[in-house]
Design brief:
single chain; alpha+beta; four-stranded mixed β-sheet
């Protein structure tokens, strides 16, 4: 198994770089779905990984396409720590070998934070590299959760979006498998980088999305 690298890319934002798409997806699957699965069976719960794979496959005509569906990942460090406290106590048959890898990553990230900053929010992102568009999109998530100034500025931009367009973004995100609780975060991240991906901008003119992207990027580039 190829080893991952962990790099601090912003204050309390840590990139876990795993070039292989399948290995990255399977490493992050449990914590990502613990954090924001659209299903109440998995979100915030200690779950059997094999039950999750069954559920995901049945929802997609029998195909387990997780690694091709999702390329980047983002989770608050605290959510990852909570998740793996539960994993430690669950039956062995509910786990996979990927759990050991992610548990080690969570411990390593925690150890990289100075003791005087451990009360502050920290974030883990997963990507194939630290230069591509997926990486930039995930960094936008990290900033949103760790930097209140950034969050306030992009929330102001989001509040100014035409309500009809905002409803299209919201509806598209829900169709893509996101939940209501992450809509504001996902809107700013997609419009910072990736608005043409996965149907996010369906129903909104490209000129509008391009203009919004310019505005979000002016803020992003200052951080």
């Amino acid at each position: 198994m190829e080893s991952e690298t962990i790099e601090k890319v912003k204050d309390r934002v840590f990139a876990v770089v795993i070039p292989d798409d399948y290995a990255r997806a399977m490493t992050f699957l449990r914590v990502q779905e613990y954090y924001e699965s659209p299903s109440h069976e998995f979100r915030g719960r200690d779950f059997d990984i094999w039950r999750y794979i069954e559920w995901y496959s049945r929802d997609r005509d029998g195909s387990f396409s997780y690694a091709s569906d999702w390329g980047g990942f983002n989770i608050p460090l605290q959510a990852a720590m909570d998740c793996y406290r539960g994993v430690a106590a669950m039956p062995c048959e509910w786990k996979s070998h990927w759990d050991g890898r992610m548990s080690s990553i969570v411990d390593r990230v925690s150890s990289m934070i100075p003791e005087g900053e451990r009360h502050l929010p920290a974030y883990i992102i997963g990507s194939a590299d630290v230069v591509g568009p997926t990486f930039k999109h995930e960094v936008a998530h990290g900033l949103y959760h760790t930097d209140p100034v950034y969050r306030g500025l992009v929330d102001e931009i989001t509040a100014g979006i035409d309500p009809t367009h905002m409803e299209s973004f919201r509806s598209n995100l829900l169709s893509m498998g996101y939940t209501e609780g992450v809509i504001m975060d996902e809107v700013q991240a997609y419009l910072t980088c990736g608005w043409q991906h996965g149907g996010f901008s369906d129903g909104v003119p490209g000129k509008v999305c391009g203009g919004l992207s310019e505005t979000y990027n002016k803020t992003f580039n200052n951080f």
